[in-house]
Amino acid sequence: MPALTTSPLSRREALAALAATASMPMLSACARAVAVAPAPVPLAPAGPSEAQALALLDSIAENLLRLSPESATSLGIDTGARAALRSQLSDRSALGQQRIANTLRADLARAQAFDAGGLGFKMRTNFDVVRSAYATALEGFAFPYGDVAVGGWRNTPYVVIQNVGAYLDVPRFLDSDHPIETAADAEAYLARLQSYPRQLDGELGRIQSARAMGLVPPSFLLDKAIRQMEMSIKGAREGGGLVESIARRTKEKGIPGDWEGRARAIVSQQVVPALERQLAELEAERAIATAEAGMWARPLGDQFYRWALKAATTTTLTPEEVHQMGLEEVRALHARMDPILKEIGYTRGTVGERMTALSDDPRYKFAEGDKGRAEIMAFIQDRLAWIKAQMPRAFNTLVDPNMEVRRLPPEEEPGAPGAYGGAGSIDGKIPGRFWINLRTTDLHRKYDLADLTFHEAIPGHIWQGEYTRKDPLIRQMLAFNSYSEGWALYGEQLADELGAYDGNPVGRLGYLQSLAFRACRMVVDTGLHAKRWTRQQAVDFFVNVNGSKPEEVASEVDRYCSWPGQATGYKLGHSRIVALRDKAKAGLGAKYDLKAFDDAVVLGGNVPMDVLARNVDDYIARTKGN
Length: 626
Description:
The chain has 626 residues and is mostly helical.
């Protein structure tokens, strides 16, 4: 994160009203008495206003933006007073990490000192969210290694690995999010490109320090990371996306200048050597690495995992509690899948075995190669058109997502999940994106791709993200894994309830298997990091118990190894949302309305689970009072 540091601003204190004293006029002497004017009741000190609260939240947001210039660009707000951020990258060095922690600590103190008790429910919620996100992040910064996502989902002990690191993040960011409309934008691109080697070296110092204290990633993760780093270096030597992106886009916009030549010089002379230094460190780590998959085998690993689990779920559940919850959820979902499998002729074997057989059925596979990739893209667009038309049945407050479906960059695909998605920029110039992994069409099936589309796009991540645009800036920057992923799974459920699989039992199996897959994640993540499972045990659990595709789950398991805890938030968050919906139904009876409930959850914004419960309680109370 960035090399900029800011001084914390003082909280604006409320003005106290001054009590006026009254004079005591004398009446005429013949009255032989003095009449005293009644003394006014002293006014209570004025409490903070909504405007003061918003000003404080906005100043906290600005401090966080200065630490993450890329976020300002991705949100589309690196203009005006923030224009300088468009030329900067965050500082990923140890010093940069310390600056983040110092800023969070100071701003958390400001948020905690601010008395929002007399303000409206929404504003009190804003402060609850900031306090929760910052306090949890500071617990993470107390560890001597790793990356901490401030109100985000990518907490990792490994700063550079198969799905983490600037070598993956920066090329995608510069091509997808950094705008090039003018010569100034192109100059800002080159400035960021020149900062890229310093960012890589900042990471290098941290992974070298981690190795010195005994923190080395699992050997199988390093094998992937090394292959991907070699691909990045090969591409950079040839110019690759870093050069091609600015060359193509300046040409399209008719911006004169030798942008390609200047970019190529930076990449060949500065970026390639920095990538090679990281590669040499990864190879040094590989020479001493073991195949132990979980955090239990790392220094402070048990403590780190307990924190990562807390950050991912926004609860205080123990690894054992999460593990058992996952097993119970898997059993319940398989009990729903069993009769459907029998209905379509799959009667023998466990649910997992029968789903494996279903996956092998050529009727549900896409063609191989580019033909299949085109089929997948067309399938996604068809399902997006259908689900978008259903949204007035599920929400009173509608949005119109600006979005696109894109294939992941090939160099990222080996270490990436099957897909991911998120909302675009505040100004709408950067669309929400549904990234689909197409390294092989065998990753996807015709019975599960619709569900994946609903999860990543509508009414899942991209749809939910659109509702944050009216929130204070800090709320648009902070997100909570269990809410984000729980909502996306709830979006899958809504699609089913709206008729996505009516007359299509195989499609409903795909949906239920998706939920079971997320329940398996709770079991596998805790198994790897707390119960000392091997990587193969984790893969086998998915394949044997849930009938998941081996090609898919191998990368999934690797992701859990590098992002401890993150995978547990999905089904836990979904189950909490469904439980709150049941509570609203029971509490409101005839006054319950699906669209009103969905609005309450999505308009309340991205929040920790305890804040979500308060938001739903507020909705129930307001509805009862109407």
